[in-house]
Amino acid sequence: MQPTARLPGSLSLILRLEGAVLGAICIWLFAGAGFSWWLFAILLLSPDLTMLGYVAGPRLGAFVYNAGHSWLGPVFLAAAGHLAGSALCFALACIWGAHIGIDRALGYGLKYAAGFGHTHLGLIGPAAKA
Q: What is the pTM of this model?
């Protein structure tokens, strides 16, 4: 599938609202876990370290970025935390999920190998202006 500048109809709105709702749920669950909001603030942007994959090129960069911005990671971490009785794992999964949800609500989607600006939610940044 080729990246497009704009998703058809209300699809973009639905996907962005979905991200906002899932992000809000993760924040709500984190609040209930009883961990420090300092931990939340310090780690909220840590999934963006996956952008360093772009140093090795757009193909590997997109793979690494998508691995860190897929819902699979936080869901498996939350499940592992629950099974192991680790509240910390659950809290970290909530932070990770909140980051993904906020990203999606802002229009930062999963990346195509065509470049960082080519996402499943449409083109962003300089790619959108070109």
A: 0.91
